[in-house]
Amino acid sequence: MAIVEKLDSAGRIFDTCVIGSGPAGLAVALSLEANGCPVLLLEAGGDKRRSQPPPSPEIRIEDPSVHAPLAETTRQRLGGTSSAWGTICVPYDPIDFEHRDWVTSDGWPIPYDEVARWYDEAGAFLGFGPEAGGPFVTDDGLVLGAGRLANRAPLMVRHRDRIRHSRNLTVLTSSPVTDLQLAENGERVHAARVRLRDGTVQEIAARRFIIAGGGLRSTYLLLRLARQWPQHFCAGRAPLGRYYMGHLTGEIAGITFRSPQEARDFLFQADAYGVWTQKRFLLRDECQRETRTLNTAFMLRPPTLSDPGHGSGALSLAYLAARIPGVAPIAKSTRLTLAGQNGTRGALHAHFANALRRPGATAREIGVMGAQSLKARLPILIPTPSGRYSLRFHAEQMPNAESRVLLSDAGDPADPGLDIRFRYRDEDFSSVLATHHALAAALAAGGRAKLDFYQPPEDRIAAIRAQALDGYHQIGTTRMGDNPRESVVDRNCRVHGLDNLFMASSSVFPTSGSANPTFTIVALARRLGDHIARLS
User: Fold this and answer.
1) Is the pLDDT of residue 128 over 70?
2) For residues 69-101, b (16+ Cβ closer than 10 Å) or e, as one string?
3) Beta carbons within 8 Å of 274's beta carbon, 6+ residues apart
4) 3-class secondary structure, 485
5) Can you tell me the distance from the alpha carbon of 426 to that of 400, in angstroms, rounded to the nearest whole number?
6) Which of 3, 188, 208, 508 is most buried when burial is the number of CB atoms within 10 A of its CB?
7) What letter would DSSP give residue 374?
8) Side-chain half-sphere CA neighbours of 322 within 13 A
9) pLDDT digits (tens, 9 = 90+) for 54-74
10) Contact, 90 vs 499, CB < 8 A?
11) What is the phi/psi pair of residue 283, to 5°?
12) What is the model's pLDDT at position 344?
């Protein structure tokens, strides 16, 4: 088979049609292909980085201050967002799947182990070795997890040879799906309507369909289907398009280790497979239950570069370079750009002193920084003599029915747009602050490190709120559950009420957890591929 832009499908019914070739779509398509199932993979975009994106529904973001532009969060091309994602892979935690009475969710309808058993296969697909063991509890009662960086090559590059030589997989590019057509009884999808490059519309029939077009565009197709078939599909099913979640990220505190040497365990390190990893702090499940907080992970980032108190000659040189006009943009580092805009001239002598105090060590640190940032494209993160770093948080967002996406009533009813009403709740901000306090107490009790907040107590919630921005992780809008009135898909990711329509997307996650979702997206997609192969 091949990657094509035109398809002769007259009178042909495909076995499985997968809509979208991002991490989820490609993972489920190759899983089916490996099981001998014929698959048609539809991709709205083209096969090249600079290919012209296809026409899309008009999408309006209600509050751009909390939701990043779609040009930054999505890609319409073969491989989808794998051509732009940060490659951080973190497994979800068992507590994410549980019912927690302080979280507006019944939890997942499947246990943690049902997803975790697919993580090794997901890791191989994404380009790193098997998991190096799960999180473990430290002597001071904290949990240490790890994030791993997948292969930097886009997934289509990594898997292109297999796709080109497959006998069971056909990839049709530049073919956005405009809507789905149901059979007369409204219980099965009969065909997908595809707009081809020349502007014509073609109907493609298949025995099964899997929507894997990213959280927003996948939800858009279901919303269109619900509008066309209100009497058969989603009647009274309020969750469709609701509970739109992502994460809260930012930095409101620094961390100083009692022993600068101990901090090295929390920097980026290559494991036995040559995969870059970084340890992260989490609160114990018992602590989350006691404090009634949302799951939050913490990882080290460079200290404030403009403050010479970090004692690092290499970081001081990076700061001095960032003050030279035009240098920071070349490095494409937001942290360096902001550092160059801050600081005072009076501190410059201290930065020069850092650089000259240990010239040999400074030269070695610059080499490490260059290798990590240029070759591995890691954040700038090297050991500091002071043991001082900034502490980045990556926090779960509370499921919120008022955070939603819905079809727009403006414009052509036959070709509606999409309105995004992404919203945070006060509990999201208060939980982030509470987890910082709990972490600070645990670190102090164990004598490992201390936290120093960047703002006075009265300004900390505002600081968290000011950094709250997502849209990169499109979670929850077609949530998974056993009750059709409270969920959109069942435990096997099949859309309730439709025999042959499935979802492969983070939109089925009932909760967002503290982890980046791609790793679990791929694990669920491989699980779905195995399930459908068993049905064939």
Assistant:
1) yes
2) ebeebbbbbbbbbbbebebbbbbbbebbbbebe
3) none
4) coil
5) 11
6) 508
7) I
8) 24
9) 556 788 999 999 999 988 888
10) no
11) -85, 145
12) 58
Mean pLDDT, rounded, for 266-288: 88
Q: How far apart are CA 110 and CA 76, in angstroms?
A: 31
**pLDDT exceeds 70 at position 51:** no
On whether the CB atoms of residues 438 and 292 are closer than 8 A, the answer is no
Integer Cα distance of 263 and 54 in angstroms: 47
Is pLDDT above 60 for 483? yes
pTM of the model: 0.92
Contact indicator for 379, 301 with CB cutoff of 8 Å: yes
Do 49 and 78 touch, CB atoms closer than 8 A?
no
In this predicted structure, which of 268-277, 282-291, 317-326, 481-490 has the lowest mean pLDDT?
A: 317-326
CB–CB of 94/119 below 8 Å? no
Q: Kindly state the tokens that stand for 284.
A: 């114990």
Nearest Cα neighbor of 191 from 325, 12, 45 is: 12
Q: Amino acid identity, residue 301?
A: R
**E-strand stretches of 83-168:** 88-89, 136-137, 142-149
- Pinpoint the alpha helices (H) of 19-93: 23-34, 70-73
Distance between CA atoms of residues 266 and 276, nearest Å: 12
> Cα(349)–Cα(367) distance, rounded to whole angstroms?
23
| DSSP symbol at 287 | H
Name residues whose C-beta falls within 8 Å of residue 485's C-beta, 6 or more positions apart in sequence.
236, 237, 238
Within 10 Å of residue 163's Cβ, how many Cβ atoms? 21
Burial 204-242 (b: 16+ CB within 10 A, else e): bbbbbbbbbbbbbbbbbbbbbbbeebeeebbeebebbbb
Which residue, 243, 250, 181, is CA-closest to 465?
A: 250
Distance CA 288, CA 95 (A): 9
Closest CA to 257 of 446, 455, 436: 446
Give strand pairing partners of 4. Answer: 172
Token pair 């959280």: residue: 215
- The CA distance from 143 to 441, in Å, is 14
**Among candidate residues 516, 424, 392, the one with its CA nearest the CA of residue 73:** 516
* Burial letters 344-370, b for 16+ CB under 10 A, else e: eeeeeeebeebbeebeeebeebbebbe
**Antiparallel, parallel or unpaired: β 59-61 and 418-421:** parallel
Mean pLDDT estimate for the chain: 87
User: 266 — phi, psi (to 5°)?
Assistant: -105, 10
User: pLDDT above 70 covers what percent of the chain?
Assistant: 88
State the virtual CA torsion across 41, 43, 47, 51 in degrees, nearest 10: 170
User: Strand pairing of 247-257 and 388-396?
Assistant: antiparallel
